[in-house]
Amino acid sequence: MMKKRTAFHYDQMGFTLLEVIITLVIAAIFGSMLIQFTGTSMSRSADTVERVRNGSTLVRTVEEITKDYRKWIKSNPDDPLVNFKNTIDASYGGGNIAVQTVFSDVDSGMDTDIEILWVTVSELDEDLNVRQSLVTLFTR
């Protein structure tokens, strides 16, 4: 029996030049699509790292204020809370961290109201808009 001859010989090893070129073109198309798809997410991933780093700075600032409050309350038991507020206003904040202090009175139902000091520690962006913040309450 005689073998049938065909135009393609599949018993040869390797790829033809046309197959290699087509593969490279397809890989280039998929590569450019992948870069377009992940390009913005890769550049914005640094924002997340910066936000976490600044969040830890906010936590450290609140911890420092709380530590100062504990020292202040032990050494000045009869001192009004407004003096601690003045200490916070003078000592904290700067750069992209802002510290805001506000008093609030709560009706206790007794003769005197309870005074609460709200301390808000915020991270600011370049336009001075608040990106994230932490709030802590102090009282006597």
Structural class call reads alpha+beta
N→C terminal distance:
107 Å
Q: What sort of overall outline do the alpha carbons produce when their principal axes are compared?
A: rod-shaped
What summary fits the major beta sheet? 3 strands, antiparallel
Give the count of structural domains. 1
Output mean pLDDT: 82
Note the total helix count.
2
Radius of gyration in whole Å, from Cα?
33 Å
Strand content: 15-25%
Q: Roughly what percent helix?
A: 40-55%
Strands ordered across the widest β-sheet: 1-2-3
Q: In sequence order, what are the helices and strands, one letter per element?
A: HHEEE
For the secondary structure, the number of strands is 3
Low-pLDDT runs: none
Your description of this structure?
With 140 residues, the protein is of the alpha+beta class. The protein has one domain (19-139). 50% of the residues lie in helices and 22% in strands. It is built from two helices and three strands; from the N terminus they run ααβββ. The chain has helices at residues 17-75, 81-91, and strands at residues 97-106, 114-124, 130-139. It has a three-stranded antiparallel beta sheet with strand order 1-2-3. A hairpin with a 7-residue loop joins strand 1 and strand 2. The termini are far apart. The model has no long low-confidence stretch (mean pLDDT 82).
